[in-house]
Design brief:
Number of strands: 22
CATH superfamily of the largest domain: HUPs
Strand content: 15-25%
Distance between the termini: 67 Å
CATH class of the largest domain: Alpha Beta
CATH architecture of the largest domain: 3-Layer(aba) Sandwich
Catalytic activity: cytidine(34) in tRNA(Ile2) + L-lysine + ATP = lysidine(34) in tRNA(Ile2) + AMP + diphosphate + H(+)
Structural class: alpha+beta
Keywords: ATP-binding, Cytoplasm, Ligase, Nucleotide-binding, tRNA processing
Largest sheet: 6 strands, mixed
Family: Belongs to the tRNA(Ile)-lysidine synthase family.
GO molecular function, one term: ATP binding
Subcellular location: Cytoplasm
Oligomer: single chain
Shape: elongated
């Protein structure tokens, strides 16, 4: 009875359920989950909740797994609780995907629990993790070099999409659960794989914790206290990180996905702990389908952002996420395939060419003029980089318009000799992501005449002897 009261107090204190909730209870058949189902069933009227039991046979242990499924189904029927059952060939899934067995089983199990919740209109899934599980989790993460977030252990409640995962037994120890099962004569199964030392968690439970208890007989309690302290501080830090995110990070949504943008100067003045947290939050925002929060990845990103040299560079953080530093601006973007090279031909002086790769339209026209009117034409440009004028009779056709290629060089107007196009882009501080999209206009001899928005070449300048002017102009287009 004492355990029932303590679990009820935890549920009410943490507001794990509300009156009218329907809850899917994950039941493996072991003592922990059978006790959880029994406790929630015993409290159902006081809490005014509905229950659905859910069991997954992972088909790891043959007849033993089948027997567990039968025992769970029979116990749920005895209580009068609806029971969702699934038999999933997880070994086959592991063979096809190469996943870690525990991770594969967890993925399939949680997917089934979410489906069961959807079928029954449940918004919460109850899991049977207890205080000894929490101690194991904290110690495992400590040995793996986790930060404060990891040392906070498992939360008692966690939002996941449109569901909440709740752990009503998280403050109850294994010995108390075993006593509850014995007191009420609950049918329980013993999973033989829990004794296998091929799993890290089992080694922690069977070897490491018993060894350490020689030096602290209250080790599980100490680890749970550490988790509680770390969680409170972690929650404060998380709130501070989200406040900072709102202040200095801009989120942009485009057809290519989500990107987060910040200024390196604003980031560099933050405390290092907050810098790391902010990067972790950004990575989760840009690509939430994978855990990208390992220390080495975050630290490599942080070092790129705070470096004093204001250069342009790209850092691959994952096959789906990259950091792009464009001088003082830093972007976290979903990694996309490199832009495909493109090339078009212009065969006549009056032409209009749409360049979807660059988001531009190139317009060419032929103007009859004399030296004086040509001079006025150039004066009226007001230094626009979106227009360029050439002596038409000195430009061999056809023209070509293409993306940049390795080794491209140009003879810029006003300079002696040639210069690498790559270096010109760097001088202009053009974002690396944009460089492959910028068009180059070349004549039939392969000379670069103009890089729209950047610079024109010294070839075929308009002079007082010019009678026909080739006018070029680019405009942005939408869509």
């Amino acid at each position: 009875m004492e355990l029932l009261k303590r679990v009820e107090k935890t549920i009410r204190d943490e507001r794990l359920v509300q009156a009218g909730d329907r809850i899917v209870v994950a039941v493996s058949g072991g003592p922990d989950s059978m006790a959880l189902l029994h406790v929630l069933f015993s409290l159902r009227e006081r809490l005014r909740i509905g229950l659905v039991a859910a069991h997954v046979n992972h088909r790891f242990r043959g007849a033993e797994s089948d027997r567990e499924a039968d025992i769970v189904a029979a116990f749920a029927e005895e209580l009068g609780v609806p029971c969702e059952m699934a038999s999933i060939d997880v070994p086959d899934y592991i063979a096809r995907t190469g996943m870690n067995p525990q991770a594969a089983a967890r993925e399939k199990r949680y997917a089934f629990l979410r489906e069961a919740a959807g079928r029954h209109g449940a918004k919460k899934i109850a899991l049977a993790h207890h205080a000894d599980d929490q101690a194991e989790t904290v110690l495992m993460r400590l040995l793996r070099g986790s930060g404060p977030s990891g040392l906070a252990g498992m939360p008692i409640v966690r939002a996941e999409k449109n569901l909440e995962l709740i752990r009503p037994l998280l403050r109850i120890y294994k010995s108390e659960i075993e006593c509850h099962c014995a007191d009420y004569g609950l049918p329980v199964c013993r999973d033989s794989s829990n004794e296998s030392r091929k799993y890290f968690r089992n080694e922690i439970r069977l070897d490491v914790i018993p060894f350490l208890r020689q030096y602290s007989d209250r080790l599980p309690e100490s680890l749970n206290r550490l988790a509680e302290i770390a969680r409170a501080e972690d929650e404060w830090m998380e709130a501070e990180t989200r406040r900072t995110f709102a202040e200095i990070v801009s989120v942009r949504h485009a057809g290519d996905g989500t990107e987060c943008v910040l200024e390196s100067a604003s980031f560099a003045v933050l405390p290092i702990a907050l810098q790391r947290r902010l990067i972790k939050l950004i990575l989760n925002y840009v690509f939430s389908e994978a855990d990208l929060s390992d220390f080495a990845r975050i630290e490599s990103a942080r070092s790129v952002i705070v470096r004093e040299r204001r250069e342009a560079l790209t850092l691959d953080l994952h096959d789906k996420v990259k950091l792009v530093r464009e001088y003082g601006t830093v972007r976290f973007v979903q990694a996309l395939p490199d832009p495909e090279p493109y090339a078009y031909a212009i065969t006549r002086p009056d032409a209009r060419l749409r360049l979807p790769e660059a988001g531009l339209t190139l317009e060419c026209s032929l103007l009859e003029t004399d030296g004086a009117s040509a001079a006025r034409l150039l004066a009226d440009r007001n230094g626009s980089r979106d227009e360029a004028y050439f002596d038409y009779d000195r430009v061999p056709y056809p023209l070509s318009v293409r993306s940049r290629q390795p080794g491209d060089r140009m003879n810029p107007f006003g300079l002696k000799g040639t210069k690498k196009v790559k270096d010109m882009f760097v001088d202009e501080k053009l974002p690396p992501a944009a460089r492959q999209r910028i068009p180059l206009v070349l004549d039939a001899a392969g000379r670069i005449l103009w890089i729209p928005g950047v610079r024109r070449s010294a070839h075929a300048p308009v002079s007082e002897t010019t009678t026909r002017v080739l006018a070029m102009k680019v405009r942005s287009f939408e869509g």
